[in-house]
Amino acid sequence: MNAITEKLLGLISDFTGSFKGAYNIREDGSCAGRQSSENIVITPKTDKPGIDIHVAPGTAEETVYIPACVTHSDVEDLVYNDFYIGEGADVTIVAGCGVHADGEEAATHNGIHSFMIGKGAKVRYLERHIGIGEGTGKRIINPVTEAHLGEDSYMEMDTTQIEGVDSTDRRTSATLAARAHLVIREKLMTHGSQAAATDFVVNLSGEDCSADVVSRSVAKGTSRQVFRSQLSGNTRCSGHSECDAIIMDRASVSAIPELTANHLDAALIHEAAIGKIAGEQLIKLMTLGLSEQEAERKIIEGFLK
Amino acid sequence: MNAITEKLLGLISDFTGSFKGAYNIREDGSCAGRQSSENIVITPKTDKPGIDIHVAPGTAEETVYIPACVTHSDVEDLVYNDFYIGEGADVTIVAGCGVHADGEEAATHNGIHSFMIGKGAKVRYLERHIGIGEGTGKRIINPVTEAHLGEDSYMEMDTTQIEGVDSTDRRTSATLAARAHLVIREKLMTHGSQAAATDFVVNLSGEDCSADVVSRSVAKGTSRQVFRSQLSGNTRCSGHSECDAIIMDRASVSAIPELTANHLDAALIHEAAIGKIAGEQLIKLMTLGLSEQEAERKIIEGFLK
Of A305, B146, B229, B296, which has the fewest CB atoms closer than 10 Å, so is most exposed? Predict the structure, then answer.
């Protein structure tokens, strides 16, 4: 793999020269390294770009890394990654994505991920996105995630995009079977003239399933953010959606969380708040000796932690 | 006026044989009574159906009644009512609407209301909607309200639709100048196979203006409700939107409150909750001697009060 991939891997997946266990490193649309483990088997697709990841039933606390890097401008990467999580498996998936633009053309990654999560399985899905490089071309990351949560399964999706991505269109959909539980935590920061759109669609279709979707974002500069979520309660279930945003400078933020209860026993809640950093918070930190910029940084760090 | 109008007036505007002060009674598209007062002048439009209501500057605590009734099937009423509220006036507008279907055809009222609210004026706008009659035709009420709130003005819009309206499409939009304050309270109950759509669009465009939009609804039977609100904060302002719904039987409810902050000093919040009546509340009232039906009725009454 090239030096930029190595740098990006450090930023998106705590890479320190090697991965333990199963991994697949994607570099500019090709494979820069792949390893299966006893329980986690990675095979390339034959009909389209991407891989299938099979996690054996009963796998206990293993981690698989599937970072994807675009290392220069004028690359538009498209990949399909399909996860088949066996019954009762417990697995962490680290799926960072880094794009590096060095010229006038865009560097783009489109990652389409699907999850078939078996009965009683437990999945932690970590997605860290970053854009770097001195080029004027846009750094674009468009992730699509489609999850099918089997009975009694659990999925936690933790996504972070803090810096450097000029444009992102994030679409996540999930369908939950009986007693499945979905937790989504999104952290997003945009600056300059960046644009970010987020769209969550959650179908609460199995009895006693539940979902908890929380997005926290900071919009600086003249950046624009649109957050959408749709929770549909189709049976006895519970759903919670929350969107909190800090607005700075001349940025704009929209929050459009949609709840639909199609069943008497669906209990759905959402909350959203958009505002600037509270003056009192700033003053408090400044009386402790921080400059205004340092105080702002501290508050944002705490908000996105 | 006919007997059905008289009955409807009692239901929608506490009519007891006469109105005090200014009023205009609309019956099946015609005028069934009109009176101006010294400060409130009502004149029929010449270019389209409807009236202009001019409230003189400085008018103190007067009330004007403008009920509209559709008394039989196969009427599709359309009316434009424009309000010009003078500077510093303080006025209450009672604008109920009742539709009575006695045959197979629909009885429909489309009321389009616009408000030009002068500097420092105070308006309370009460809108009570009801459908009655033994006919199989639909009872339809589609109100459109467009309000322009001048500097330092105050508008409170209190709308209630509790019973008998088969289909309603309610659209309200407001634009607020500096230091204007808008309060909206909506109460809605649907039953049978009724459908209700509500749409609020509020532009917070003047410095230090504010809006507080609260909708409470109960959906019974197989009825469907869709609540939408859009608050746009375009300057230093604050906005709050809330939608709480009780779902019963096989009804469905969607809540789609949209917040957009286009300015650093816009502070926007929304909340929504959809769920059934809490079991503990029912049990508590039943231990006090109420039947399950009585307990439900009591809880709904309290919720919509």
Answer: A305
